[in-house]
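Minutes, project huddle
Topic: does the predicted pose make sense with calcium ion bound?
PN asked that the exact inputs be recorded in the minutes so nobody has to dig through chat later. Recorded below.
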Amino acid sequence: MANETILLIEDEKNILELVKYNLEQESFRVLTATRGNAGLELALKEKPALVLLDLMLPEMSGLEICKTLKQNEKTRSTRIIMLTAKGTESDKVVGLELGADDYITKPFSPRELVARVKAVLRRAQETPATECLKAGTIELDTIKHELRLKGKPVEVTAKEFELLYALITSKGRVLTREVLLSKVWGYENSINIETRTVDMHIGQLRKKLGTAAEHIVTVKGVGYRFDDEED
Ligand code: CA
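Predicted holo structure (tokens), as shared on screen:
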């Protein structure tokens, strides 16, 4: 995990210096940008393992950057942690929906930030890289990070992919919203984002799955289950 490249996009100089220093102490390679456009360019060029992304930036907002990175083939698997100010709850939810992995609310302690960075990178490594899961007409290619329906690729966000992955690999078992939050968003003990985020993602995923969405069964008041019965 050490020596991995982290791109920090932050326009507040004191935060930038503090975070850079603390990550370098942990042997990460740290790149920095203070403006939105420059940050995005650097991300596309350097393809860092993780981007620490301030949301309020000059020229281009962090949410726009997040969206662009997740839509680009080259940076789709880049992990993103948002740095948010207090009172920007809606931005946080939008960011997570766009595929950000986590967020940290300012002010934060450098130690907490380093721990979150490591947790997100660890999860990235644990995602198996050599599998193609099949269920009915659904195929999940974990190498290409691609969802295919009847052989045709369907565009999904990183979170939608991971949700489907979690459901399929737990086929037949109910997964509570809390478990899904933990598996897909990585929250272990405290529920940092609302469980309705799970419902919103499931809703979007179902739309994209079309008729294959019937595999995802809502278990009222509990969570979701993937059923793999023949149609
Ligand atoms: Ca800012």
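Observations noted during the meeting:
- The mean pLDDT is 88.
- The longest strand covers residues 79-84.
No decisions taken; revisit at the next huddle.
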